[in-house]
């Protein structure tokens, strides 16, 4: 419909090995508005997780931006302070996974620091329809071969 503007919904993550958890987050975000996915740089992922991602950042962006439900994808956060990327994207809603860092309180601080006004939402639970819904789970399966 012409004249109706959808809300801007920001999701963020590593998006290293794509799995049903990512698809679930994207699907839920898309139900709320136009989704902008922010992909962590190789450097910040290594800093946060203690190891570099398997898939390079440009390739992770390419994969995410070509998924149904994604309006925009950016290689965005290169620091643990999300306020800069929030200020750039100006989301109406930030949607986070159920166990994704940072905490809601810390994300509220970033929103305030960015001078933004947006709602922070978190998925209530992980998707349970599948056995491999995390990158860690996939890597464990590969490592142990079971």
Q: Can you offer a commentary on this structure?
A:
The chain is built from six helices and five strands. With 146 residues, it is α/β, with parallel strands linked by helices. It has a single domain, classed as 3-Layer(aba) Sandwich (Rossmann fold). It has a five-stranded parallel beta sheet, sandwiched between helices. Helix 5 links the parallel strand 4 and strand 5. Helix 4 (83-89) crosses helix 5. It starts with 7 loop residues before the first strand and ends with a helix. The mean pLDDT is 90.
In terms of topology, how is this protein built?
Blueprint (H helix, E strand, L loop, with lengths): L7 E6 L6 H13 L1 E6 L2 H8 L7 H9 L4 E6 L7 H7 L3 E4 L7 H11 L4 E4 L12 H10 L2
Parallel strand pairs: 1-2, 1-4, 2-3, 4-5
Brief characterization of the structure:
The chain is of the alpha/beta class and 146 residues long.
Largest sheet: 5 strands, parallel
How many distinct beta strands?
5
- Helix- and strand-based class? alpha/beta
At the fourth level of CATH, the homologous superfamily is HUPs
Strand order of the largest sheet: 3-2-1-4-5
Put simply, the count of helices is 6
Helix content: 25-40%
| Backbone CA Rg | 15 Å
**Could you give the order of the helices and strands?**
EHEHHEHEHEH
* Structural domain tally: 1
Percent of residues in β-strands: 15-25%
Question: What attributes does this structure have?
Answer:
6 helices; 146 residues; globular
């Amino acid at each position: 419909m012409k004249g109706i503007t959808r809300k801007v919904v920001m999701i963020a993550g590593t998006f290293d090995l794509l799995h049903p958890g990512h698809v679930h987050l994207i699907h839920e975000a898309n139900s709320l508005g136009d989704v902008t996915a922010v992909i962590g740089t190789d450097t910040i992922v290594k800093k946060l997780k203690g190891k570099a991602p398997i898939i390079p950042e440009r390739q992770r962006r390419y994969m995410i931006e070509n998924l149904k439900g994604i309006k925009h994808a950016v290689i965005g956060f290169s620091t643990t302070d999300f306020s800069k990327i929030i200020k750039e994207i100006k989301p109406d809603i930030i949607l986070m996974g159920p166990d994704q860092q940072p905490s809601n309180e810390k994300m509220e601080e970033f929103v305030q620091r960015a001078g933004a006004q947006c709602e922070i939402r978190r998925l209530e639970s992980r998707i349970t329809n599948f056995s491999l819904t995390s990158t860690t789970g996939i890597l464990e399966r590969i490592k142990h071969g079971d």
